[in-house]
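Attaching the record inline, Q. Sequence:
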Amino acid sequence: MNKNLLIGAGIVVIGGAVAASTLLNGGSGEKNIFNIPQQQADPQSDGKKIEELYFDELQNEDRYVFCIGKETISGDYKNTIAGIEEGEINYVSNDLSVFDKDSNKLYILGRSIDYRYSGNADLSSGAGQGILQINESGNTVEYYKKNSAPVRIDHNSKTLFPAPERKNGDWVAIVTKSTGTVMGVTQTSTEEETGDAKTLCSYFSLAGDPLKNGAVITPEFFSFKGRCPDYSPNPGISFSGDFEFECSNIDSKQGVELLKDYKEREEMRDAFNNINNDLEPQEDNDLKDAIDESEPVQSPEDIQGKLDELKNEMKADQQSR
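Structure, as predicted:
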C-alpha cells in the first residue's frame, strides 16, 4: 500500500477528532455550537455511590453476620487520691455489630449510650470540713465505618472488650457541688464541666471453656456475664462491678437499614450541637476592650504616692509665687 495514502488517512482521522472536540467543547474561544452539556464531577453524588457500595458489601452474608446487642456495666467506684470519693456507675449501650469472618472479629458499627454516675467525696481535714456531690450524666449516639470501628470481640485472641473507647471524650455533663466549712463559716459553690464516662471494667478472656466462665453461645445468639476484673488505671482508683453483654443475629438487610439509621441520628446530633454552639452568648468584646484599655487597679501605696506628689507640686507652686 502507498505510504502516502496511510499518512493521509492518519491526518484525516486526527483532523476529524480535533474537529469533533472543537465542535463539542468549543475551541479557540468558540462556543459549543450544539449546546451539548458537559459532565462535571459531583463529589456529593460520588460519595453517595461509594457509600452505597459499602452498604452493599456489608450484605455479603458469606462474609458478614449482623447482630443487635446490649451492654450493661454497673457497680461501685472509689477514688482515694484526694480525700475519699465513692459513687455508683451505670453504663448502658445498645449496639449494632457485625462479625467479619475474614478477620474473625466482632465490630461495633453503631451504638447509643446512656451513662449515669452519682458520688460523694469527703475532703475533711484539721483545718475544716469539705464535702463534694458529683453527678455525671450523658447520652450519645455513634456511627462507624468498619475500618475505624471499635472491636467488641476478637476471636483470634479470645478477648471480649467492655465499653470500647468512645469517639469523643466530652459527651458527659459533670456537675460538682462543693460545700466547705472553715472556722464556722460555710460556703457552697457549683462547677460544671464535660468529660468521658467512667468505664473501668477491664477485658475478659474467652479462652479455655467460655461456657463455664459465663458465656452462652448458639448459632443465633451470644451472651456473657461476669464480675469485672480488678483494674486500677491509677493507684487509689478502683471499681467493683458487673458486666453483661448479649447479641442476637439479624439478617443483613435489616442490619444495613439499622446502620443507616445510626448514621442519620449521629448527623442530626452533630447538627443540633452546631446550632447550640452558634446560639451561645458571645462575650461582649466592646466591654472587654474597655476593661483591657482601662488603667490597672492601683494599690493604696500607689494612691498615697500620687497624693504626696500632688501636695509637693502645690507647695512648690505657692513658694514660686
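Residues 1-30, 284-299 have pLDDT under 50 and may be disordered. Residues 252-279 form the longest helix (28 residues).

More tomorrow.
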